[in-house]
Specification:
Elements (H helix, E strand, L loop, with lengths): L1 H13 L27 H25 L26 H24 L1
Length: 117
């Protein structure tokens, strides 16, 4: 009996759905640009996850070096929430800020084009 119990225990551990990682090849669906299929082998999977983490940190440092600003979903660079309780800025300042930014960007582009000609 102990041998049968031991075999059953090993079978249960091997076929435990909690030990199985997600396998996208078993699903038929569209995968986006950010899709990454990790290996089923645990050691390879950990190495891949570490490489991805390091790449994410390196990208974050590079973005910070260039002064990139992270925006929350729904935010647009240069716009401000106007009026209302707790809002920043006055009633119409958000729109004028955006227009000023666009004008500055246009002027910078014109200077670059003029410099090339």
């Amino acid at each position: 009996m102990p041998l049968v119990a031991e075999i059953e225990k090993e079978f249960i551990e091997e076929n435990n759905p909690l030990n199985i990682h997600y396998d996208a090849s078993k699903e038929v669906r569209a995968k986006g640009a950010g899709f990454y299929q990790f290996s089923a082998d645990e050691e390879t999977r950990q190495r891949q996850m570490e490489e991805l983490k390091n790449a994410r940190e390196e990208i974050g440092k590079t973005r910070a070096g260039f002064g990139a600003v992270d925006l929350r979903p729904g935010e647009v660079e240069g716009m401000q929430v106007g009026g209302g309780a707790g809002g920043s800025g006055g009633g119409g300042t958000g729109k004028s800020t955006v227009l000023e930014k666009r004008k500055r960007d246009l002027e910078e582009r014109r200077k670059l084009v003029d410099a090339k000609v």
